[in-house]
Structure formats: C-alpha cells, structure tokens
Amino acid sequence: MASTTQILLIGAGELGTAFLPHLSALPHTHVTVGVRTPEKYSHLSSLTVSLLPLDITGPSEVLSQTFANYDIVISATGFGQSTGTLLKLAKEILDAGLLRKKSSQSRLWFFPWQWGVDYDITGDGQGLMPLFGEQAAVRNLLRAEADGNNVKWTIVSTGIFMSFLFERFWGIVERERGSVTVRALRNWEHKITVTDVSDIGRILARIVSGDVDAENTVVYVAGDTVTYEELAGIVERVAAGKEVKRETWSIPQLEAELAKDPNDPIKRYRLVFARDGVWWDKERTVNHKLGMPVIDVEKYAKKLFTT
Fold first, then answer.
1. Which of 71, 100, 204, 253 has the largest count of CB atoms under 10 Å?
2. Backbone angles phi, psi at 24, to 5 degrees
C-alpha cells in the first residue's frame, strides 16, 4: 500500500485556496492548511484536508519542529508579511530538513513564496522594493544551503496574477462608462507575464506529481505574456464598441511621479514593472512543455468585459 504524502500548505488566501482543490485531489496525499485561526476556515476541511493553527511569526524552534512533520511545505502566505518573515521561514525550513535527516526521513520539499516575477533579475527594484530583495535573498540561501540540510526546493515564477492586470488601482486598464484607457509601462513593446490563480494551482499539482523536473531550480509558468500593444489590441476587440484610449507611462515619467510621492507603493510597483525581470516567453514554461491549456489574457478579458 502506497504511503501518504503529507503536504503543509501555509495560508488560505486567494492563492492558497486556489491551490487546495488541486493538491487535495492528488492520490495518496493529505493536505494540512496552516492558518492563524482555523475556525474561520472550517469549511475547507475534508477527508483529505485538515487545518492546523500556525503563526509563522512564532518561535523558530517550534516552527521547524512542525515543518519537519511534513514531506512538502508550500508557502502561500502572500505579500502582507513583515520584513524578514520570508527569510525567517526559509531558515526554519532548512532546520526542519536537518531534523528529518536525524530521524532518517526523506528530504523536505519546499516551495517558498516566490509566485511572482524573476527576483534574480529585479533584485530589490533599485531600492524601491525591499521585499523583492528579500525574495532574492531567499533564493540565494536555498541555493547555498538546501542540499546540506536535507531540503530540496522549487521556485515557481508566475508573473502577476491575471486579475491584477485589470484592477483599477493598478491603472493599466481603466474602464469608464463609455471608454477604456490602456496604459503602457515603459513603452508599447514592453511585456508583462500574467497567470490566473486557478491555473497556478493546476500547474503546481503537476509539479508536485513529478511530471516535470523541478528539483532545486526556478521554473516558469505563464497564462500569457503580452506586450502592452497586444494588450491594447485585446481590449479593443472585447470592449464591446467602447472607445479605447492609449497612454504611455515612460520610465522618466514614472520616476517623476514617484518623486512626488515616494511612499506610494503602487507607484513603486509601476516603476519596477516598467523594468526588466517581469516577463518570459511562454515557450519556456512548465505549462507549455506539458501541453496544458490555460487562460490567456483575451479569454480572461472577454469574460471580464461581458459580465
């Protein structure tokens, strides 16, 4: 009889809940969802899903002992963590791997919170995004120490969530009553990679199943990679006759806007996303290699503009 793979999923927000149905459907697998207040998430419990009270800001020794009980730990905690939390978690995972090694258990497989851009390229966004810099530091720590600590790791770069591309506060696609404005960061040839959260969950399940070689490496997924020119064309096709206006937010313009309000996080994000490291070709992605159908920008936009 096959043994049961124990997965700890940290977090039950937008991404964690998108992961859960795909992970819990895997054969011979049990998923434990670690959250601060399990009673709020009792609806998630099932035969293959249980809940665990977990505070990742707690004592490292206790957390490492907890993590050592699982074969796979997947972080879906989101960006709302205080500075240092993600690096703290990575160190606790490394300690958990050593605890498993002492008891002759298999290597712990860690998926850190890296569900975003290519932090090896962006770094800290030239000082604008300390959290991005921490993400890069997590990568460097895992590359340097994981093997010796009985840990293997996989970083899954997804681009931004597809829904984010159309959020009003982001300002890239701004819908009004009779018109839509599409704005390009940097220029119209600049690109952005986006993936729908449900597709990230489907692809993650295939990675966990071993359908792709993903040990100790960065892998890429993409629902779509589009230029801003292509994005504007998509909006024109799906906007049901509305006038589509186009504006360019160049890097100098974004820098000037940020200088007026240097603490505005959205203006910081816009400038970072106007630079490199925020897109990759679809042909190099896990989903492309596996032949997996995914939601692209046009399919997502059609649904958005017709509801």
1. 204
2. -70, -15
